[in-house]
Give the backbone structure.
Amino acid sequence: MSTTTLNSGKFRPPFFYDVAVVGAGPAGSMAALALAKKGLKVVLLEKSPLPRYKPCGGGVTLRALRLLPAEVLSTVQDTCHLIEIHLPSKKLSFKLQWKQPLIFMVMRQHFDYALTTEASRQGVRVLSPCRLLYLEKGRSFIKLKTTKETILSKFVVGADGALSRVARTLNFTPCNYLAPALQAELRLSQSELARYRGIARFDLLFVPGGYGWVFPKKDIISVGVGRMSPGRINLNKCLKDYLQFLGLETPRPKLIRGSVVPVRPRKGAFVKGRALLVGDAAGVADPFTGEGISHALTSGLMGAHAIFEGNLRPDDVKKIYEKMLRSTLLRELRWARIPCLWFYRNRKLGELVFQIFAKSLGSAMAHIISGKGAYSKVLANPLTYLKIDPVFRDEVAE
Ligand SMILES: Cc1cc2nc3c(=O)[nH]c(=O)nc-3n(C[C@H](O)[C@H](O)[C@H](O)COP(=O)(O)OP(=O)(O)OC[C@H]3O[C@@H](n4cnc5c(N)ncnc54)[C@H](O)[C@@H]3O)c2cc1C
């Protein structure tokens, strides 16, 4: 792909924008798209050539899917009606079937590119590959020095992931914990793939303080492990053991890649002067599941809303964005840390909770990822715990 891509032709110097968005992941493309729809002049910078690879299970929950423009839905490669939850240490498992599919499987390079293309179609200028090098604060604009050109912008959206350069340059408080995750993409024959189709599998506590997953795609399966709670871990060994446990250890073509998921939000400000953070840059992934796409999209939309409603005035944007974040996403993330304490802090407690409450909590999780419920509602509701329903082997909960 050529260097300057997607809708770049009609723009001429001086490169002055209402908003410069850094990072073309789900958070950045969603924010750019929403801002362009409001009529703002937007540039989106991405350091990698597009479409870019992103190590990710590519599990898009129903609540995330609902936020997406129709054009992106064609990138879904498998639809999971069934969720299998296993506790390998006790040889327990149950199956969760919902009225609607709960998880939709995508390859991130196609999914993210479809969203970026949609932003471009709405008038966003997309620059790729174009890396942000540093930012300089001015009174009425920010200057962005990039590998391609210098950009002046009234506002900057930092959507540049867990290791955000925008956040580091502007001295935002660091994220408290970046959860490591590693996955293998295994190419299987169609007959081998058939047994994985339509099923999202989780093996809780296979990894200390975390879990393993198997997500099916069109030609591959994504098998991964992640540690959600702080602590030392050799993820390479965990992944090898997990593949062996699943009977997938025989040599076959595989791509192994890892990264981090910010499962503790930044403390303090999310807006500083003319810059605002969204998605992984803000640290808003779910601490229990590591699901980050949904909150990346939501925070991208909230950031765009605040910039527009605040009329690009830093104080107003800050007031609107931080109020929205605190009353919704950040509140949810605090509640989501409760199941982390049960399952990830102490293996014995996690196993006990699984045996007693797994099915009711599984059903509660289905409400949450479908977008119909919230951690704050289901965990605060005594009925969730009164439905004590012990798990035996190979059960089906509907
Ligand atoms: C192994 C693994 C598996 C995962 N599986 C799932 C899953 O199944 N479901 C789920 O919901 N979440 C999953 N996540 C989490 C999810 O991938 C992230 O939360 C999500 O990608 C966050 O989106 P984002 O737009 O905030 O950031 P990103 O998707 O990371 O996008 C940031 C973008 O910014 C660009 N960038 C960075 N620095 C610069 C710079 N200086 N200049 C220009 N561009 C820059 C990057 O190249 C990147 O394209 C997983 C994470 C990992 C590590």
Observations:
- The chain has twelve helices and 19 strands.
- The chain has three domains: 16-53+108-175+264-331, 178-262, 342-397.
- Residues 16-53+108-175+264-331 form a domain with the FAD/NAD(P)-binding domain fold (CATH 3.50.50.60).
- Residues 1-5, 391-398 have pLDDT under 50 and may be disordered.
